[in-house]
Design a protein that fits this description.
The chain is an alpha/beta fold. 49% of the residues lie in helices and 13% in strands.
Length: 268
């Protein structure tokens, strides 16, 4: 089946949709004829993305909310389900990164990163899940990272929050396979987005710099195409990136080499 036939008329809800991979996914899904609900905590950014869809903008509905504060999320989801008569795909793209050493990171910052990346993601998912169970269909995706598969310098809370994502969504799949609900975890490596710019330092201030490796990553547009291809192929894990993805295989097959590489990266 062609991709436009898979997604035409389907309802796709994307968080983190006002920039980066989320924004690129909005454009890809809109060209495939999907009906879109797009969310982030940046309403002007969402409206910009909606308008950028041009003649297809009437298929896009902006629904802002903050992953750090999910008060009223059940009512918000109920409203959208009533309007769209169901949700076929949920893509949890929104999140935040980190750039600080463990001993410099106050506990409140660890909690904040977890509130956004883990509790925000699963809280929103739990609000949508009952409707997918009721309709006996759906596909839920969550965004991890290659550092969601191993520890990495300056990303202790980020790495831990992303590792927790794997445990939750693998369990969600096992519990709801009989309800015809699929799950996928997106594992990006280096993608050329603003994630390092907005990463939190030990004071809670934004990092404000594009990491060198980030700048050399694949484009958000290419990442979006890889993700959509992974959805069509029903992949449990969708790897997004270039050569840096080999670290996943090195960590699994040759742990001592991985730690040598990671230590070298830490010292540079």
């Amino acid at each position: 089946m062609m991709r436009n036939e898979v997604f035409k008329g389907k309802v796709v809800w994307i968080t983190g949709a006002s920039s980066g991979i989320g924004e690129a996914l909005v454009y890809e899904f809109s060209t495939l004829g999907a009906r879109l609900i797009i969310s982030s905590n940046d309403l002007p950014g969402l409206e910009r993305v909606k308008n950028a869809c041009g003649s297809r903008s009437d298929l896009v509905n902006c629904v802002p909310f903050d992953l750090l504060d999910l008060k009223g999320i059940e009512e918000l989801v109920q409203q959208q389900v009533k309007e769209f008569r169901g949700i076929d795909y949920l893509l949890n793209i929104g999140g935040i990164s980190q750039r600080s050493r463990i001993e410099e990171t106050p506990l409140w910052l660890d909690r904040k990163i977890f509130e956004i990346n883990y509790f925000g993601t699963i809280g929103f998912t739990k609000a949508v899940l009952p409707y997918m169970i009721s309709q006996k269909s759906g596909h839920i995706l969550a965004t991890s990272s290659i550092s969601g598969r191993f520890g990495f310098p300056l990303r202790s809370a980020y790495s831990a929050s992303k590792q927790a994502i794997h445990g939750f969504f693998e369990t969600l799949y096992l519990e709801n396979k009989s309800n015809n609900i699929r799950t996928s975890v997106i594992i990006p490596g280096r993608v050329r987005t603003q994630i390092s710019m907005h990463a939190l330092e030990s004071t809670g201030k934004e990092h404000g710099k594009m990491d060198e490796g980030q700048a050399d990553g694949i484009s958000p547009e290419k990442a979006a195409k890889i993700i959509i291809r992974g959805i069509v192929r029903n992949k449990r894990e969708i790897l997004v990136g270039k050569g840096e993805l080999t670290l996943l295989y090195i960590r699994r097959i040759c742990p001592w080499l991985f730690f040598r590489i990671a230590d070298k990266l830490n010292s540079t």
